[in-house]
Amino acid sequence: MKRSRSVILATVTALVAGGAATWFSGEASAAAACAPAWSPTAVYVNGNVVSQNSHNYTAKWWTQNESPAVRSGQWDVWADNGVCGGGTTPPTTTPPTTTPPTTTPPTTPPTTTPPTTTPPNGSLPKHFLTGYWQNFDNGAAPLKLADVPATYDLIAVAFADATATQGAVTFNLDPGLATAVGGYTTAQFKADIATLHSRGKKVVISVGGEKGTVAVNSTAAATAFADSVYSLIQTYGFDGVDIDLENGLNPTYMASALRSLRAKAGANLIITMAPQTIDMQNPQSSYFKLALDIKDILTVVFTQYYNSGSMLGCDNNAAYSQGTVNFLTALACIPLQNGLRPDQIALGLPASTRAAGGGYVAPSVVNNALDCLAKATNCGTFKPPATYPGIRGAMTWSINWDVTNGNAWANTIDPHLATLP
After folding, report:
1. Are residues 319 and 246 in the same domain?
2. Which of the residues 4, 15, 237, 279 could staple to 193 if both were Cys, CB 3.0 to 4.6 A apart?
3. Do residue 58 and residue 170 come from a single domain?
4. Are 323 and 230 found together in one domain?
5. pLDDT at residue 72, as a whole number
6. Per the record's keyword annotation, is Nucleotide-binding included, yes or no (predicted)?
7. Domain boundary among 54, 83, 112
8. What pLDDT score does 79 carry?
């Protein structure tokens, strides 16, 4: 999310060269022993080995009730290790090393409509609207937090500030904003968060942005991040954290930090991510890997489908131009087909042409994309391989730009969310 940002021009050639993942697959020796039989009720994580239909399979990321025989391949959750011998044996212990989220297991293969699942944390609506609140004055309408329109269910406060301690963050009200709104104190800001809570809204602190310098690249930094964000939660009443690190992240240490934060804050902690479009093209890229690594505690990913140029979709055979319904559906299909649940995916768009360098679409187009993903209606020429009725909703940069534009974005999309399955 940007105060100002340049357009990222990602060519198809560079994308393919830099993003293509080569997963391990192939035939194992016929004499290889079969691993414990796959169980649809068990949770498996990266590296777990199971067998099904006389083949061994290795999990690439967190998974539950995704049949290895159906979900194996270059871009899928299981790697086929080849034929195994000696039949299969039932597992003697429960494979998972992490606590499974509260989800409704799928009852159909992923080529059909995936089921709706219960979000792992937070108390947010089934479909909801997210907006970023600007803690600075850049020409968009300055707002006190309590003046955020009621159409927004989740408000991300942009942004936390880096400190001299690597990984640690703090929060300070911007003096320019305070002046623009006629005065704004820390006490008033805290009271506004409480007011939003009384309205049934959630508020998270966003870390990063275009100019953010927060880096979590070591065990010490991960600890500092978790401790400092937890301190902000206690001080201000934030409901969680949004990861918007646009200058790179280390998925291993950030995952560690977020798990530590979750342990401190509890199961209701909201964890969101706002990767740039190119960050969610390949399951091996840092942002995508982070999302998969924390899938069991992740609330939602709202990829920024703007400032992107043209990108490959999940069909991998065409480049789609930003600013179209095809772009939104074909790119949202990538994480949906590569490990994330529909309730963990939302569409991120600018609220107006002034809010981003490129990629703005009319809010009616956002509604069409949601319909296409959830119900297979109002699609463009691209047709997703399945329907995703649990698709979570939409996000915008920013609430301030939407208010500047007469609230056209939220006023169009918010009522439409109620029409989704």
Report:
1. yes
2. 237
3. no
4. yes
5. 79
6. no
7. 83
8. 85
| 167 and 225 share one domain | yes
User: Count of domains in the chain?
Assistant: 2
Please write down the long-range contacts of 73-78, taking CB distance under 8 Å and 24 or more positions apart: 73/23, 73/25, 74/21, 74/22, 74/23, 74/25, 75/21, 75/23, 75/283, 75/337, 75/338, 76/337, 76/338, 77/338, 77/339
Q: Which CATH number does the domain housing residue 369 bear? A: 3.20.20.80
Q: Which of 26, 59, 83 is the last residue of a domain?
A: 83
Q: What is the predicted pLDDT for the residue at 2?
A: 52
Reading the block at residue 70, the tokens are 């159906």
* pLDDT < 70 positions in the chain: 1-31, 45-46, 61-64, 73-77, 86-122, 210-212
The catalytic residue among 27, 66, 210, 246 is: 246
Domain housing 141 = 128-418
Q: Does residue 107 lie within any of the structural domains?
A: no
Answer yes or no: 27 catalytic.
Answer: no
3-state secondary structure the chain: CCCCCCCCCCCHHHHHHHHCCCCCCCCCCCCCECCEECCCCCEECCCCEEEECCEEEEECCCEECCCCCCCECCCCCEEEEEECECCCECCCCCCCCCCCCCCCCCCCCCCCCCCCCCCCCCCCCCCEEEEEEECCCCCCCCCCHHHCCCCCCEEEEEEEEECCCCCCEECCCCHHHHHHCCCCCHHHHHHHHHHHHHCCCEEEEEEEECCCCCCCCCHHHHHHHHHHHHHHHHHHCCCEEEEEECCCCCHHHHHHHHHHHHHHHCCCCEEEECCEHHHHCCCCCHHHHHHHHCCCCCCEEEEECCCCCEEECCCCCCEEECCCHHHHHHHHHHHHCCCCCHHHEEEEEECCHHHCCCCCCCHHHHHHHHHHHHHCCCCCCCCCCCCCCCCCEEEEECHHHHHHCCCHHHHHHHHHHCCCC
**Residue with token string 């997963």:** 23
Q: Is residue 179 situated within a structural domain?
A: yes
